[in-house]
């Protein structure tokens, strides 16, 4: 079953005279329970793609459907409502509210949805234990490490069980240990809760955790790789090769 | 690119960001210049000469300098904080701190003095309106002319020059203290994190409330006779001020945080959007806000209190003139009364006359005093008061053994309150007459010439009056013992009669009074003071409102990323704005409410020195103040609205 369907989406910035087309007709379908990576060189449009898919930015042409709802035609208020119930976000710079404790940050999406407080606490306990941040619940964001912040951010994205989770370079600001921790947790959540995750990354290691990787070049889809039954190591090799052909910045590995 | 170009480009680019600072500058320059122009205005000399307002104006201008400099320094701190990143960047590319300081100084110089000139021009065109208001209030006749005063210009330039130096010193210290790293981080590190509630905090909070309450308690006791010596009185006043201000600070520091903390704890981490935007954001900043809120509360309390008191005296000018001069004209000697009546008859002005025989009697009022007088100046067992017969008063009938008091000055009433009933003694030269005291009437019947400055008049039975008259002690009698009150029948003749009264040649030291003159005199005296206080109060109001508004602007910029997150999470603009409204209600409301409360107690403790009416003028002032003050709150909400809209 398709969770997300995007057909022929166009997005450009600038004015009439100085127009820059960032997305030039992208088609994507994402199935329920998939863990999708989006890769591409800097400036290829991957963050823009994520932003339009997640309804934060408007498209200029084409159509995006999430669970049958056409979000490209929704009004601002409907969109806000839609984000509340259907989407979760993880960002590179965590985007936690400094004024709230870890627990308060995580419970925020539930308060939007007006979930009864007993249910909310139960959900929090289960999720926080799963992500290993239960002990931190009364701390403020500036008292915990980057990895912990990112896990808090992930918990906030998962807590209201959205149909899709969007992650923008979630490992970008983490060291390799914290990054692999987080990716393992994400995979685990993906498996156990069958949450659909879309992750933008430029790190091939991070991408190798996905079940499918979409490569973007100059605003168009270049190719898609499926993990299938390969091991993570083989998949990683595949990704590296594709990236080499793509002509992005290569890592000596 | 050399340094001059850099300065100039910087200036051009920053003018947009500076508008807040420019506004603060233009506003304070205009305010100050208008006021100083007034000080040097030749038109004011007339008012000054007659009511000695020069000293008051000068004192006020000193106070104004203080307000203006605090205001500008505060605007500057917000402003330099905003530019800390730029300063860090300059340092990063290898500029020395001195050089950066020089760039900032040059840039600031252009900005500062050009807005100063604009401010002076605005203040100049504004000063005419100010003078016209002053004339209106003091009933001074004259036409306000636009007059450019060089002294005012020089004084303004000097004052603002000094403030400029102060600001530069502050900037210098700021740059000197900072490291590159700290400069980049400054916005996020200025506020400490919220700590858990400690017992200490609870104690601080409770202490704060105790301090405020005790301050209020002493203020209520201040003039009721508990403090009789001047020394004790001034100690009491200082301790009220100290305990209330300190209490306010502790209240903000401890109690507010404590209460909010309790509220937050009870939510167990499950906060609604309104809580997120109001509760947690307020708590997050409470540490740095405590001092600011205290300053603003104190300033508003001061402004409201002063405005109330001056308005009370202005408002009750007529009323208190009525107390001092019971009739349109009160004439103390029969001879003067006769000549004035003659003059009135000649001009064919209709009038009614009221004659009252008065004798002075020593009265023992010890047993009807609420509390013992310790002051050596007044002997409560032999107080000299005027006595009149019941016949002289319409509609009063007292039994032969009864005495009614009437017309007792407010101020004295506070210092020496009487019981509702009791026994008193009226002492003649030989005999002492025992009387039953039956109460105190509000109405004044005699002029202050007879009442010794506001002591009550005793009304006794005609028989008793005659007895006292025969037995009167000549040593304490006044020169005259007949009071003549003249009321002009037609309102329209009053002006003419008053002129006539002014032209009369009365015998010396008889202290005849015209109520109209008294009212005008009162209004002129109080009018200038009220004008100055009103001007200062307005300056206080606008500066404290602006400071709060700037603070909120600053906060909203800091919190912009939060709004971005929240909107991404699916909160609508309306959700966010509702939370902001609650927050602003708190940020503006709490200092206002506490300030109103402070000034209420201040006014209650001493209003009777200033006039006869308290409620109407006080409530009017408070409502007007609240309305003006709310404008800033509304403006800040609008600003937040803009920020939230831009956040996604």
User: Strand sequence of the main sheet of chain A, in spatial order?
Assistant: 6-7-8-3-9-10
Number of separate helices of chain A: 8
Quickly count the domains of chain A: 1
**Termini Cα gap of chain A:** 37 Å
According to CATH, the fold-level topology of chain A is Rossmann fold
Number of domains of chain B: 3
Radius of gyration of chain A: 18 Å
What is the helix content of chain B? 55-70%
Radius of gyration of chain B: 32 Å
Give the overall silhouette of chain A: globular
| Category by helix and strand content of chain A | alpha/beta
- If strands are numbered along the chain, what order do they take across the biggest sheet of chain B? 3-4-8-5-7-6
Number of strands of chain B: 10
Unreliable residue runs of chain B: 186-194
Architecture of chain A in CATH?
3-Layer(aba) Sandwich
Q: Which percent range describes the beta-strand content of chain B?
A: 5-15%
- List the helices and strands of chain A in order: EEEHEEHEHHHEHEHEEH
What coarse outline of chain B follows from CA principal-axis ratios? elongated
Question: How many H/I helical runs of chain B?
Answer: 20
**Count of DSSP strands of chain A:** 10
Query: What low-confidence regions of chain A span 5 or more consecutive residues with pLDDT below 50?
Result: none
């Amino acid at each position: 079953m398709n969770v997300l369907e995007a057909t022929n989406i166009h997005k450009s910035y600038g004015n009439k005279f100085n127009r820059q087309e960032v997305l030039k007709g992208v088609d994507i379908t994402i199935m329920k329970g998939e863990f999708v990576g989006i890769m591409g060189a800097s400036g290829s449009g991957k963050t823009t793609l994520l932003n339009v898919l997640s309804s934060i930015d408007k498209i200029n042409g084409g159509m995006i459907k999430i669970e049958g709802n056409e979000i490209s035609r929704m009004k601002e208020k409907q969109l806000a409502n839609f984000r509340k119930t259907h989407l979760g976000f993880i960002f590179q710079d965590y985007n936690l509210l400094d004024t709230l404790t870890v627990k308060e940050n995580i419970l925020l999406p539930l308060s939007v949805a007006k979930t009864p407080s007993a249910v909310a606490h139960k959900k929090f306990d289960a999720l926080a234990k799963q992500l290993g941040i239960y002990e931190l619940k009364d701390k403020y964001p500036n008292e915990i490490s980057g990895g912990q912040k990112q896990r808090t951010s992930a918990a906030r994205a998962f807590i209201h069980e959205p149909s899709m989770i969007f992650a923008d370079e979630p490992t970008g600001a983490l060291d390799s240990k914290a990054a692999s921790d987080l990716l393992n947790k994400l995979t685990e959540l993906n498996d156990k809760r069958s949450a659909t995750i879309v992750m933008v990354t430029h790190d091939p290691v991070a991408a190798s955790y996905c079940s499918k990787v979409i490569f973007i070049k100059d605003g168009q889809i270049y190719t898609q790789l499926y993990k299938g039954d390969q091991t993570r190591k083989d998949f990683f090799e595949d990704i590296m090769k594709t990236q080499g052909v793509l002509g992005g910045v290569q890592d000596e590995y | 690119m050399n340094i001059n170009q850099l300065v100039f480009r910087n200036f051009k680019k920053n003018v947009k960001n500076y508008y807040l600072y420019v506004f603060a500058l233009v506003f304070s320059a205009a305010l100050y210049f208008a006021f100083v122009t007034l000080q040097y205005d030749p038109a004011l000399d007339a008012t000054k000469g007659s009511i000695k307002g020069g000293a008051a104006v000068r004192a006020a201008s000193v106070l104004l300098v203080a307000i203006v400099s605090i205001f500008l320094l505060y605007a500057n701190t917000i402003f330099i904080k905003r530019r800390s990143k730029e300063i860090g960047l300059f340092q990063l590319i290898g500029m020395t701190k001195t050089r950066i300081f020089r760039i900032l100084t040059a840039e600031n110089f252009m900005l500062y003095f050009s807005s100063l000139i604009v401010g002076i021009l605005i203040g100049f065109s504004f000063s005419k309106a100010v003078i016209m208001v002053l004339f209106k209030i003091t009933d001074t006749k004259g036409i306000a002319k636009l007059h450019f005063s060089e002294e005012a210009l020089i004084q303004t330039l000097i004052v603002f020059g000094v403030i400029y130096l102060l600001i530069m010193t502050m900037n210098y210290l700021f740059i000197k203290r900072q490291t590159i790293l700290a400069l980049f981080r400054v916005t996020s590190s200025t506020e400490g994190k919220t700590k858990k509630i400690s017992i200490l905090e609870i104690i601080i909070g409770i202490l704060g409330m105790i301090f405020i309450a005790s301050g209020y308690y002493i203020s209520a006791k201040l003039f009721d006779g508990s403090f009789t010596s001047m020394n004790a009185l001034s100690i009491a006043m200082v301790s009220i001020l100290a305990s209330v201000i300190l209490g306010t600070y502790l209240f903000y520091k401890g109690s507010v945080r404590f209460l909010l903390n309790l509220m937050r704890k009870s939510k167990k981490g499950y906060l609604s959007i309104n809580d997120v935007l109001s509760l947690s954001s307020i708590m997050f900043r409470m540490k740095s806000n405590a001092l600011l809120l205290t300053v603003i509360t104190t300033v508003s309390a001061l402004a409201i209190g002063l405005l109330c008191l001056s308005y009370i005296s202005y408002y009750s000018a007529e009323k208190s003139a009525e107390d001092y001069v019971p009739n349109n004209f009160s004439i103390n000697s029969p001879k003067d009364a006769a000549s004035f009546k003659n003059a009135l008859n000649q001009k064919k002005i209709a009038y009614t006359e009221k004659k009252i025989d008065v004798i002075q009697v020593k009265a023992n009022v010890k047993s009807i005093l609420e509390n013992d007088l310790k002051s050596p100046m007044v002997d409560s067992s032999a107080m000299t008061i005027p006595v009149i017969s019941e016949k002289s008063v319409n509609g009063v009938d007292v039994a032969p053994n009864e005495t009614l008091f009437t017309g007792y000055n407010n101020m004295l009433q506070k210092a020496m309150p009487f019981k509702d009933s009791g026994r008193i003694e009226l002492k003649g030269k030989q005999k002492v007459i025992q009387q039953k005291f039956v109460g105190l009437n509000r109405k004044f019947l005699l002029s202050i010439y007879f009442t010794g400055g506001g002591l009550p008049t005793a009304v006794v039975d005609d028989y008793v009056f005659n007895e006292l008259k025969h037995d009167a002690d000549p040593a304490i009698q006044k020169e005259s013992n007949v009071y003549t009150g003249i009321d002009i029948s037609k309102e329209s003749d009053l002006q003419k009669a008053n002129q006539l009264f002014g032209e009369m040649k009365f015998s010396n030291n008889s202290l005849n009074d015209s109520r109209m003159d008294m009212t005008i005199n009162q209004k002129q005296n109080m009018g200038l003071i009220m004008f100055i206080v009103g001007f200062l109060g307005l300056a206080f109001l606008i500066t404290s409102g602006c400071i709060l508004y700037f603070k909120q602007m600053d906060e909203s910029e800091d919190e912009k990323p939060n709004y971005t997150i929240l909107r991404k999470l699916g909160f609508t603009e309306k959700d966010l704005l509702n939370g902001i409204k609650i927050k602003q209600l708190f940020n503006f409301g709490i200092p206002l409410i506490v300030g109103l409360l402070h000034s209420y107690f201040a006014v209650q403790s001493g209003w009777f020195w200033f006039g006869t009416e308290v409620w109407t003028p006080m409530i009017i002032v408070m409502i007007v103040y609240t309305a003006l003050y709310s404008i800033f709150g509304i403006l800040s909400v609008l600003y937040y609205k803009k920020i939230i809209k831009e956040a996604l």
